[in-house]
Design brief:
alpha/beta, seven-stranded parallel β-sheet, Glyco_trans_28_C, 15 strands
Length: 415
Amino acid sequence: MRQISAVEPARPPRRRVAFYSHDTQGLGHVRRTSLLARAVVDADPDTDVLLLSGAREATGLPLPERTEVVTLPRVGKHPERGYGPRTWGGTLDDVVRVRSGVLDGALAAFRPDVLVVDKVPLGVGGELLPALRRLRNEGRTACVLGLRDVLDTPEVAVREWREQRSTSVIERFFDEVWVYGDARVYDPLTEYALPDRVASRTVFTGYLGRGRTSATTAPGGTPYVLCLVGGGQDGAALAEAFAATTLPAGHRGVLVAGPYLPEATRDRLHDLAARRGDLEVRAFVRDVVPLVESAAAVVTMGGYNSVCEVLASGRPGLVVPRTHPRAEQLVRACRLADLGLLDVLVGAITPERVGAWLARVAHEAPGRGRPEVDVDLDGLARVPALVDRLVTATRAATSTPDPRVQQEEEHRATA
């Protein structure tokens, strides 16, 4: 890292950590960053956190003390036109230009010790590039790229990695790469044949599974089976199949629809729930962990967070993965199913198939009949120590006077 000069303002005494999440679709990325923020603050309350995201719902998630959220103008993905402004008119370039200015200004003013970038090294449309250049030139911030366990199929991931020149971007701007997974389950370094230049900076944190529990309590009463469809933007088929399923005897159903579920689908689900009497439909839930931990069984899409929550709970889980536009959920679900940790439903999503699985597992004790596989679920406990190490190293490096600066000062003093 380049040394800072004596004329720059003093570093704030409290440590500062920033998290960037692009969030063009769904809530998975911002949920992951909010969990990381909470883990860092819980480990050291003397920390200020800035969370930068394109998801307005970030402000409604459980956030730790001393955390502020900067919400960026939203970007959406149209099935035919591709990425563009979600609210404004114009092009992707128009909204990226505004987002880039907000990011650069916020990070320049916040001056974090550590910046953790989720998944996309340069952000949407390269929007992080000005900020990363500034931070690297100032030399006072350690930059980390955080990756989920699976990016996509190896063919797609390798092609996109090459097209985005991710290796050279990492070499230029990032000190470390954190993989939020267990290499014994899925090793992207091997699966995607990433070079030693990336591997030498990579740390496997373990899955962000355990440690998500909050003070929120789950609903009591009749035992229930749970259905999760992530943000809901592509969960209509699963939601409607679950809502039409014959539930196990003695159980009711709880369906968390997600904030992005199409309104027409949501209305149909509420109408059906009102007629059935044994089905409860919820929209956005701030903290889904207690619901998962108290469910008799969980049917869920295959997003990273949902899978981590089911694995950590020990509850029987049926993953119904998305297969397009990315196969990430399918790859993850099949790998975990091969290890006997979860079941997976591929193909037609019907009430009969969902109901047959629920009837089989709903009365099982948690973990019964499943092999004990030593999967690392303690990433949230491990990340704070990684942050501590980077903060210590960065502050030590920038507190050492640059010999060139000293020589210039001595020359001025004797001139």
